[in-house]
Design brief:
single chain, alpha+beta, five-stranded antiparallel β-sheet, 10 strands, globular
């Protein structure tokens, strides 16, 4: 496999909130080889694909709100737009930094509905995705359509919490499409977690969701979105509890080879006792 393909696979498999560390590792591994490997077209495409598919959030210079990077708000080149702040910005896919904000309004026949969705979505994100998250944002965009009248609106939520000092990171992504004609809401909700203290454990789960006969107001659409997210969260919680009580317990030996239960709170005492016996 070519070096560019190997590096691309590293980028695509990066856990949430850890791209900076992955880039540093790549640079360290290639410092004696090809330092320009990160600028290879395949690698640059991998960075863009990763950031867009992961709905990465970034802060605009001088701003307090996060903006999203996705295929739905991409303009030409590395430029994207944000409906909340009515700005466009340039995004560096390697450093995940947003820059050069400029006033921008994306004209669409669905602007009124998007504005209504955006208002309800802001309340939902503030309530369910707390400020201690490393980055959280929600936004709605018109989906490009071959016809003159776009019929779909993309509704996106992304929340990332990375805590390197605690060896854990995670990201929640909601990607839903609202069809203005059929009044349906379809898409995916995904959760990804990485825990890497004294080991390497990853959770990566995605669910396809859909809902029909939805009202055509922003508040009703976001209400259904909130219901779908709650259902998914409860399903994930039940699955994890079941794994802890079933699968994980089955992996543990119930009794040691001595056939006697160990009092784990006294485990250090057991070792000390053996040492004393050996000294005698």
């Amino acid at each position: 496999m070519a070096s560019a393909e190997v590096v691309s696979s590293f980028v695509q498999g990066t856990p949430p909130g850890e791209l900076k560390e992955v880039v540093q590792s790549i640079q360290a591994l290639t410092s004696d080889g090809d330092p320009s490997l990160l600028q290879h077209p395949k690698v640059k495409a991998a960075f863009q694909n990763y950031n867009e598919s992961q709905l990465v959030c970034a802060k605009l210079s001088g701003g307090s709100q996060h903006v999203l990077v996705s295929p739905y708000n991409r303009l030409e080149g590395n430029k994207y737009y944000d409906t909340t702040t009515s700005t466009s910005f340039t995004f560096d896919h390697t450093t995940q930094k947003a820059s050069n904000p400029q006033s921008y309004t994306h004209d669409s026949t669905n602007n009124d509905l998007i504005s209504s969705i955006q208002k309800s979505l802001a309340t939902h994100v503030a309530e369910h995705y707390p400020a201690q998250s490393s980055a959280a944002a929600g936004s709605a965009y018109t989906v490009a359509s071959p016809s003159e009248t776009p019929t779909e609106i993309a509704i996106l939520i992304s929340a990332t919490k990375a805590s390197p000092q605690n060896f854990v990171s995670g990201r929640w992504r909601t990607t839903l499409l609202y069809n203005t004609g059929s009044r349906t809401l379809t898409g995916t909700i995904a959760a990804q977690v990485h825990y890497y203290e004294d080991g390497n454990v990853a959770l990566n789960t995605t669910k396809q969701v859909s809902e029909n006969n939805i009202g055509d107001s922003g508040s009703e659409i976001v209400r259904v979105l909130a219901k779908l997210e709650k259902q998914y969260q409860e399903e994930v919680n039940r699955a994890l509890v079941g794994m802890n009580e079933g699968s994980f317990r089955g992996l543990r030996r119930q009794l040691p080879v001595t056939r006697q239960r160990i009092e784990w709170e006294k485990i250090r005492g057991y070792g000390l006792s053996d040492n004393l016996k050996g000294n005698k």
